[in-house]
Amino acid sequence: MSGPEEHGGAPRVVLGVSGGIAAYKACELLRRFTESGHDVTVVPTRAALEFVGAATWAALSGKPVSSDVWDSVHEVPHVRIGQAADLVVVAPATADVLAKAAHGLADDLLSNTLLTARCPVVFAPAMHTEMWEHAATQENVATLRRRGAVVIEPAEGRLTGADTGKGRFPDPAEIFELARDVLARSTLGGGTPLDLAGRHVVVSAGGTREYLDPVRFLGNRSSGRQGYALARAAAARGAEVTLVAANVALPDPAGVKVVSVETTGQLRDAVVAAAATADAVVMAAAPADYRPTETATSKMKKSDDGSAPTIHLAQTPDVLAEISRDRANPAAVIVGFAAETGDDAGSVLDHGRAKLARKGCDLLVVNDVRGGKVFGASDNEAVILDVDGGAQEVPLASKSVLAHAIWDRVAARFETPA
Fold it and tell me: Which residue among 170, 189, 208 closes a domain?
């Protein structure tokens, strides 16, 4: 099967839409694909057309839309659409479509397309909690994942009517980012490299806060973007992902369980709990190193005489050192981050190597943050140090590129016997 670079045109994406109320949200997903230069063919089910009409899909995609294998039969659409695709995304994917895909049924254009596609396939389920948790749905999901499909975990939140729970359609922008990630890796490596399938990974992101009073805190400039890129990349590679997010103002990555925290103590508790069943932990968060020994219960006021209060500090828990030392899973791969500037005592890499030895982790990602570089930026560059003495330079590129470079090193350690 040729890829988009081989046939010289725009990447060819099939957007399958099944019959759930979240079908209207797929319009936003379609818009993101088309505006970023993808050639999109929308294949709705008949039920999907009850929610969003064919005219809408045709107008947004610039192509005629059909759900019937008998339309334009001379072009053999039930075979050709899947054969020509570089990526298939089914969003929303109902329990019915997941069951058809798992069992190889082919009674409409979308199910035929899924059978003929030899490219990566991403399903974004959306349904009521009881339907998602039903044993039949879970077995179908497990079957699809075993065959190499990416089945995104649904989000938690408001469902149809007054119901809430797991089963909500993830943010379309985040589905787009994950799908684009899957497509990019397929183009580079061929097939769907789900090398983290069956693995549970934990990622921390953001910066913790240690409160002086109800409105003031000690913190840092971490935006959480690199941690979120790591979580998104791991999900695209098939992992079950727990993201411990400290004060991050970003949308939840699709298919990722997000645990929100504020303080370093809360971060420590969440990471330790999640690490108990983890195959890898990547500590991309920037925990505060110190906390006030006392927190005022009311806002501290300025004094009339111009004097300032004396604040006593204590060290916060060293989460990276703790999880490196006390590994619930002895085979787990632990990755730390070091934001360094270098000084008279040593260079950025000197400090990084010392930290790698001191913390006891397996890999350490060293960032040179002189002049405020990295924080809040969309790009990053780093050196990945290995406990075995290796060092990999990752040139300036998107934080997604660095995320995949890190997971490449983690996956390689999975393959190497301890």
Answer: 189
